[in-house]
Structure formats: C-alpha cells, structure tokens
TrEMBL record:
This is Protein-L-isoaspartate O-methyltransferase. It comes from Thiocapsa marina 5811. The keyword Iron does not apply. Its EC number is 2.1.1.77. The active site is at 60. Residues 105-132 form a coiled coil. It is found in: Cytoplasm. GO terms for cellular component: cytoplasm. It catalyses: [protein]-L-isoaspartate + S-adenosyl-L-methionine = [protein]-L-isoaspartate alpha-methyl ester + S-adenosyl-L-homocysteine. GO terms for biological process: methylation; protein repair.
Length: 210
C-alpha cells in the first residue's frame, strides 16, 4: 500500500494533471504521506484525495499541494515562505524540501503539535512553527518572498499582503460567493497584481485560536 508502485502512480497522475517541476515531483515521490494521516487511513495515503486529519480539518489533495507549490515557485524560487494552515504538515514538508526557510502558522494547537513532532522525526530543521491566527501573518520575520494559505478567507487578508516582499508571490484560495478560486497575488512596485488560477475547495479560514 505504501509501495514504490503506488507512489509512482500518484506521480504519473500529477504529471498528467500539469505538474511539470521535476524537483517538486521528486520531493512528493519521496515524502511518506502515510505518516501524515491516521494509521487507519494509511492505505489511502497515496490516492490523489484529501483525507480527514481530525478537528474537522483535512490534509490537502496531493494535486492541490503540487499545484499551489508550482504556482508559488513558477515566477522564481522564493528563499523564505510563510505558510498559513499547517494542518498535517504535509504541505509544510514539501515547501521545506524546496526553499531555505519555512514559517508555518496554525490556529489549532493539537494539530500544530502533531505536525511539529512529525516533521522533527523526519529531520526537517528549517521550519519555524507558530500557534496563532494566521490572518495576522508573522510580522517579526516579514517580509516573505512567498506566502501560501491553505484555508479560504473571504478576501485577501491585508496583514498578509503587507508582509509580502516586493516581487513576492502569495497563493491563496478565496471565497467567491459559495465557491472558491485559487488566486496568485504578486507584489509589484505599483501595488498588487491578481491572477485567478482555477477553482478549488478548502476549509474556511477561521479567526482566533483553539
Ligand atoms: N496544508 C494542510 C491543510 C490543512 S487544512 C495539510 O495538507 O495538511 C487547513 C488548515 O488551516 C487547518 O489545519 C486549519 O485549522 C487551519 N486554519 C484555518 N484557519 C486558520 C487561521 N486563521 N490561522 C491558521 N490556521 C488556520
């Protein structure tokens, strides 16, 4: 169930869906996604689907993780990335394998602690975690070359836009009525450019901590 063949099939699927960055595909091929879900769901860990991780949250679908990471890195590879919504830590691990430093903020303390322990065991040393409302960003370490948000707000959170470096890119899902779209926001000398990438479905961004 966690065999090389099952993983190879997932990678092939991602390639067929338009994921073209060889380095990114390689990172996902090597990551043990079964360690990011409950044991009872481990047999489904290499399917291209979102799975429950408790507290009403989900680990994102591998395609979505890959698509967002590619969209973040396509213009140029960021050096520092702020991630909002650590969840299982899977997206965090993908980012930390590709960039120099990742800052990850999660509002649910229990999920954050589990993700922190998982990533420690996998020997990632370039991630800083914070238990807080991610809509506030992480001003102490700003500006960030990249920001990736994995829960959907109603509009682009102002604090996050302000913590983006000049030339930096933010990838985030945002509500449009009852549906969501994935946005790429780029900070330019003139202000912010927005580009709609595709339809997506994320859990909502919730304020406060728990
Ligand atoms: N990338 C994660 C996705 C988890 S789902 C993964 O693949 O595992 C989205 C996560 O965003 C949830 O863990 C949820 O608790 C968190 N979240 C929602 N609102 C938040 C907020 N305001 N600040 C920080 N995290 C938030």
């Amino acid at each position: 169930m966690t065999s090389q063949r099952t993983r190879a099939r997932l990678i092939q699927r991602l390639e067929e869906s338009g994921i073209r960055m060889p380095e990114l595909l390689d990172v996902i091929r090597r990551l043990p996604r079964h360690l990011f879900v409950d044991e009872a769901l481990a047999s489904r860990a290499y399917e291209d689907s979102a799975l429950p991780i408790g507290h009403g949250q989900t680990i994102s679908q591998p395609y979505t993780v890959a698509r967002m990471t590619q969209a973040l890195m396509e213009p140029s590879k960021p050096d520092t990335v702020l991630e909002i919504g650590t969840g299982s830590g899977f997206q965090t691990a993908v980012l930390a394998s590709l960039v120099r430093r990742v800052y990850s903020v999660e509002r649910i303390g229990a999920l954050l602690e589990r993700a922190r322990e998982r990533l420690r065991q996998l020997e990632y040393r370039n991630i800083r975690f914070r238990h807080d409302d991610g809509a506030l960003g992480w001003p102490e370490y700003s500006p960030f070359d990249g920001i990736l948000v994995t829960a959907a707000p109603r509009g682009v959170p102002r604090a996050l836009a302000e913590q983006l470096a000049l030339g930096g890119v933010m990838i985030l899902p945002i509500w449009e009525g009852d549906a969501q779209v994935l946005l790429r926001v780029t900070r330019t000398p003139q202000g912010f450019e927005q580009e709609v990438l595709e339809s997506v479905s994320f859990v909502p961004l919730v304020s406060g901590v728990s």
